[in-house]
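Duplicate of #3305? Posting structure anyway:
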C-alpha cells in the first residue's frame, strides 16, 4: 500500500534547517529509499511564493501567499510504501523524530484495484 504523508511543521515558516538537521534527514531519506519504503519526497518553499486556487459556486478565485495560518501550511510531503496504516505510522514517527515538532497527516492512496467492479 502507498501512503501520502503531509508534514506541517510547528517552526516559523522560512526558517531553514540546520546543517545537522539536513545531515540527519539525508541519512533517513537514504535509508528509507534503499529499503524501498520511501518512494518520493519533497519540501515546500515559503507560502509567500505560493497561491491558493479555489472553485466555489462555479467561480475561480486565486489568493497569493503568504498565508497566515501557519498550522495549516504544508512544509513537505513523502509517498511511502507500507503493509498497513500502523506500519506507515511507525515510519512517520521516525521522520518526526528527525524533522522536529509538527504533525504529519497520513492518507492511504488509491490503487487501480480500488476502482475495479
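Output from current build:
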Amino acid at each position: 500500500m502507498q501512503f501520502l504523508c503531509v508534514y506541517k511543521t510547528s517552526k516559523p515558516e522560512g526558517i531553514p534547517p540546520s546543517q545537522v538537521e539536513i545531515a540527519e534527514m539525508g541519512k533517513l531519506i537514504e535509508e528509507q529509499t534503499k529499503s524501498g519504503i520511501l518512494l518520493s519526497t519533497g519540501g515546500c518553499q515559503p507560502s509567500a511564493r505560493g497561491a491558493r486556487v479555489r472553485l466555489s459556486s462555479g467561480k475561480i478565485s486565486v489568493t497569493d501567499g503568504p498565508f497566515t495560518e501557519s498550522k495549516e501550511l504544508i512544509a513537505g510531503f513523502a509517498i511511502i510504501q507500507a503493509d498497513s496504516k500502523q506500519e506507515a505510522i511507525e515510519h512517520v514517527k521516525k521522520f518526526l523524530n528527525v524533522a522536529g515538532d509538527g504533525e504529519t497527516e497520513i492518507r492511504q492512496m488509491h490503487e487501480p484495484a480500488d476502482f475495479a467492479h
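Confirmed duplicate; merging threads. The first strand starts at residue 2 and ends at 9. The domain at 2-115 is CATH 3.30.70.1060 (Alpha-Beta Plaits).
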